[in-house]
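Record minuted for everyone:
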Amino acid sequence: MKKTTNEIRQKFLEFFQEKGHTILPSSSLIPKDDSTLLFTNAGMNQFKNFFLNPKKKKYSRVTTAQRCLRTGGKHNDLENVGYTERHHTFFEMLGNFSFNDYFKKEAITYAWELLTSAKWFNINQNKLWISVYENDEETYKIWIDIIKISPQHIIKIGDKNNSKYNSENFWQMGDTGPCGPCTEIFYNYDIKNHHDFSDFLKNKNEYFIEIWNIVFIEYNRISSKSIIPLEYKSIDTGMGLERISSVLQDVNSNYKTDVFQKLIQNIASFSKTKNLNNISLKIISDHIRSCIFLIYENVIPSNEHRGYILRRIIRRMLRHAYKIGIKKNFFHKIVPYFIENISENFNFIKEKEKQIKETLKTEEIQFSETLEKGLKILNIEIKKISNQKISGKTIFYLYDTFGFPVDLTLDVCREKGIKVNLDGYYLEREKQKKHSKIGSKFYTNYNQIININDHCTFEGYKKNTIKALIKQIYINEKLTSSILEGESGIIFLDKTCFYPESGGQVGDIGKLYYKKSHFIVKDTKKYGNTIGHIGTLIKGKFKINDFLYTKIDTLYRKNIQINHSATHLLHSALRKILGNIVTQKGSLVTHTRLRFDFSYPKNISFYDIQKIEQVVNAEIYKNNLIKVQYCSLEEAKKKKAIALFESKYNSIVRVISIKNFSIELCGGTHTKRTGDIGLFKITDQSSISSGIKRIEAITNSQSINLLHIQENKLKDISTLLKANSVNFKNKIEKLITKVKDLEIQVNILQKKENIHQIKKITEKIEDIKGVKLLINIFQKYDYKSLKLIIDQLKKDFKSIIIIFINKNNNHFNIIAGVTKNLTNFLTALEIIKIFTQLSNGKGGGKDEIAEGSSVNTMNLSKILKIIKSWINSKLEN
């Protein structure tokens, strides 16, 4: 009986457990403490530091089934998914690891026993082929002398381009880091027809499928030209669960294994296709797995970083759903089925099922219209081309006008065998960037320009004023020995009480002074490990090595501290009301207001906003102590402190705790008690991008001032309405009803006027080659009605061109309408373009209706004559 994928995973782990390995759980798809990786892409990621220093190890032998995602960088399988039988975005990597324990002989022996032993995977030895690094004679001998592999089944792979260690069989983590030779094990799917070295080289990845890679970590790459031996040697192996499952289930495609077949059948039930080998079914089945695991990890679709990868996967999946006839939202319907079928090993996914479904549904709804429009236009453009190559302008137009992603355009063209002019796309994009910069003013980011290798001690948590030494002075980004009265610059000290802009909190203001010299600090920023005091010397002189006193504006700092503590309360309240799906994406804390950006896939209701305010204010009224503690990063994680743990932190971190309501890692300044905040009021909530929300709020006296302003506005409105707080609402409702009644009456009168105008202006209709032409000038006519008149005339006449000018003092609008049957000869948009060029106006529109405007009315009659002449020539031709 064939083993299921779940059984294969378990067998692998049990085998290595018998060999003294500790089974460790898969780490997160979001790498911890590793800014070089977007996603976990290999089983060894979580053990990266152990390879360089095995003394740090907790275990000598480890085995895992690691969840991986490969969608970018060195390992990017996204474009291959569906078009090959074995590439995936999400997959599981089975691995065994040795940290300065066993090495080559044991690693190879274990692999061979697991694969070929009747007790374990029982694969026919004749179907297994081996590759080794050409210079790794030790590994070659182990295969020949100990495992007794036939020399006909083993091949040496050398370096490329005569570059040492540049080989498919020399594994490297990156440009630097642990590395070493590797040996790969291949399964031959077609042993009868492909049985020698030449066949192996020609058919690698087609008939000869790599199923296991054993890496011998024995070197450390210092640079592109320097590799040194490691003191400790380790083993890193990887075997794709999906690949070994296809071998053991005797199928020639990962998509024919039990896990994928169940999923593909479920997806197909929503579609119009009965062909289970359809490429689109494969792509959707792969991508839905990635989406579910990413959303579980709190990745939300957005336009940057990990969120962009998720959005890209969803949109690619949606296009393939369209291809097989699925045009109604259905991704969220697959989720319960998927979770049900993986619950044996991934039952933790169940807890976020609702969040996953809602995220997929929201993103699918948002992009469906864009996809439909973009595909229609792209297909029209493809039909027009004659050289089987689509222009960069078209690619950019689809992206810029409709938001149609470039990678989807490339995907469609690839399928149809059409080349794309990507250089032309980049050129168009650069043109737009340059155009958008014209007339723009940019703030100079000094801390990017000035690079200082120095240190400044921050003592501002407890002190508002200290004595300090001037280390450096910069004026106009240049180092100088002194600063004189009236000059602006940046002063660097050995220590300071000024908090530099960091973590969303703005920098302190205040003054630096000594005797008669005074420097006003307008801002404080970080420059590497030091702190710059930005401002102007209003009196006296300062020079390097002078001593001075630093004094912050305490009221300014106090208000910042209040708003920063309120931000922490807001963060916890959001998670309490909206759920733990909320993840911080950014913040701003000033002395007057606070702003908080976070991921959340749904709209936030007015009532939710009120609940959030109530929760925050309830904590304020409790007047709880705000505690500051220092502890290790591991201790902070155990306390479930909120933090962006993928960011880099020191080994000792600063934790801000507000009783049992909020606990966060934070380097900013805070008030002593929640009661200091006074009153918390949300002033605005918005969506800054798909899946990313923003809340803005104020506290303390700012909140009171806002309430007074709102009260005064209500009082003014009440006075105008001659109403009081009791009948205020009734008065407004009556007024709205009255306005609606008047609008109905106006519409009736306007329709009568439109009928009158149509009768009046049809007398001006001219006939050109059987086509009607109507040009008419109106004075301050209702603009909406002019469009209705055009629509009616187009219905009344089969072939008509209409041009309406609507004068309003020195300004006028133009509307052009053309019946559909004439758009092959001329369009409304062409008419508007001629008009805007001649009048220095602006405008746009479509083939059948377009509009523009201008303030240049002097040459109107001349412009209309030119347009009429152009129409004549077009119709005559």
Remarks:
- Confidence is low (pLDDT under 50) at residues 436-446.
- The chain has six domains: 5-256, 258-377, 385-439, 446-552, 557-697, 749-876.
- Residues 359 and 720 are 46 Å apart (CA to CA).
